[in-house]
Amino acid sequence: MNLTKSSNFILEAIMFILLMWFYAGHSLLLPDPSKLYSKDIPYRLQTNAFLNGKLFLSPRPYGAIFDTLWTEHGMSQNWGLGVPLLRLPFEWSARLCGQSLFPDKLTVLFYLALMIVLLNIALRSVLNVFGIAAHSLTGLLTRWYLISWILFCPGIYELIKYKIDIYHEAIFYGYMYSCLLLALFWVHLRKPSNRNFLVLCLVSGFAILVRPTVFFYGSTTFALAAVYVYQDTRNIRLLILGILCFCLGMFVELWLNYVRFGSIFEFGYSACLTTWSPCNYFLRFNDSPFRREPLLSASKELIGALFFNNAWVSSTFRCRDTFYNSYNILYLIVLLGGGFLFVILTLYNFFRRSFFDKRKNTFLKIIYFSLSWGMICFGGLFIFYLQAPCTASRYWADFAASLSAILISLFLLGMGCLNSLGNWRKNKKYLIVFIILTGMIFFLNKNIFIFNPDRLTIDMTNKQEVQGYVSSFDQRVLLDPYFPNTFYCSRPDSPPDLVSQFAGWDISTDCLVSGSSVIFLPAEKCLTLNYSITRHEQQPPVQVKRGLAFLKLTNPQIVENDPADPSKEQITQRFCSDSFPSNTVALYTIGWVSAEKLSWDKEPIVLNWVSVSDNKITKNH
């Protein structure tokens, strides 16, 4: 049944409003309309820095918050700058209207709405290949059915139902950007043009700014679009322009990495030591035991984590954060079916060479490239996470866009087969049965397998689970850059034991801790500290903690002339505990306690090296 333009628009608007209302209200995106602001502010701080014409949050290390880091250039957020840039137009508009803040959650909902609209437009064009008219009732229901699949993919929907903080928000933005790439890729397949190709290449290149793992979606989109253009037109000039557009986004990200963190390959994750998690140690020093896990065992754990609720957890120590339900065995069947179909269609294309013929806009071309997009992205992410030192269910949400593309490809193949048997009017009952059967995936996903979170409990104090950890410890690890934090007594909302951010300093005795350095080292009874201080400067008292316990200064400090700088003195101090540590690895924090702010611009204190037993950890400036 064909609909008029007015009735089609009304039905589209109703479907859109109902879907947005249900999706936002039944998740943590906007369960309470009165709570429009996020409790996490790193994105807001970075956006405000942009509005003030600055790249860094602050030129001083004082007042560092969770998930920020300090380098010699300034304090920065250790997340990608893509999301703050996406927030920039809204914050700028709010300031023009006399408002100091724009609601964070409304920004998220705007980009969610934009993603839905673009997917709807792209699916209109795709379904037309299968003989389904854009203004037909069948087309309308099918489009919104597929959009619902994308939105309610278990990996991403469970993510936003579980928690919305800075971590989950970053992943959700990455998912929306990946779906945007898929929509633009569909548009390019249906209406190939120079403009569509260049826009697609440009958007694909900037994907890495949103989240590093979105790079797999951006690079795959660019590669498949480039292959399609080359096979279709043999236009080398256009291909070179596309490569330049793609490289532009990559260049911006690598340049920002270099300016912010000192290396084009540093995204801020391995440089951040402001949290207590061993994952920070693994990323900073590249010393994870799971990096050496056999591929078969690592693959088994990753497959179990994705589809079997962590059924096969390896005994090798690995940071395994919060886990909840992701996908199930039905999605594994979809993945295997998609892989089998991908191989068959690739062989078919190799011998027939028919998918790239511009005159033959067949449904097999749409299916093949959509399937290729999903399979290649899934494969890249699988390799990336295979031996990663840290895992959590929120990471598995990165696979949602690829699995959704594979699922939609199989659905389109089924619709194409039905359409080949006759027109849709004759096969209406088969189409209804087909939709009902495929829709059972969502309902079965809730009821197959009962998740047992106790299965993942790993005791950090169990020496058997961390065996081999210290044996591979690099004894000459650079501590550059240096990460100072600051704590003030005047903060009434601060508890007396701030374990992770301010290292648990007691505010009743330590009024100001300037430059608390947080590092992971092999656990020993004693620690030796060497640092340089400017002559005639007042030396602030030094305190060292291992975990929550303070270490005691056990010998008089040794003062020597600094051979590298005559204006400075080198001071060596030894701190010990009354008891031996029970763990193999410990979190050490070093703080200079002062009642006044230290002028870090003049570098009054330079940490030279830290020694636990005979393992000396050096710092190069």
In short:
This protein is of the alpha+beta class and 621 residues long. Helix content is 48%, strand content 13%. Strands 5, 6, 7, 8, 9, 10, 11, 12, 13 and 14 form a ten-stranded antiparallel beta sheet that branches. A two-stranded antiparallel sheet has the order 1-2. A two-stranded parallel ribbon has the order 3-4.
Can you offer a commentary on this structure?
By secondary structure, the protein is an alpha+beta fold. The protein folds into three domains: 376 residues, no CATH class; 60 residues, no CATH class; 140 residues, Jelly Rolls (Sandwich). Helices cover 48% and strands 13% of the residues. It has 18 helices and 14 strands. Strands 5, 6, 7, 8, 9, 10, 11, 12, 13 and 14 form a ten-stranded antiparallel beta sheet that branches. It has a two-stranded antiparallel sheet with strand order 1-2. Strands 3-4 form a two-stranded parallel sheet. Helix 2 crosses helix 3, helix 14 packs across helix 15 and helix 14 packs across helix 17. The longest helix has 26 residues. The radius of gyration is 28 Å and the shape is elongated. 39% of the residues are buried. The C terminus is likely disordered.
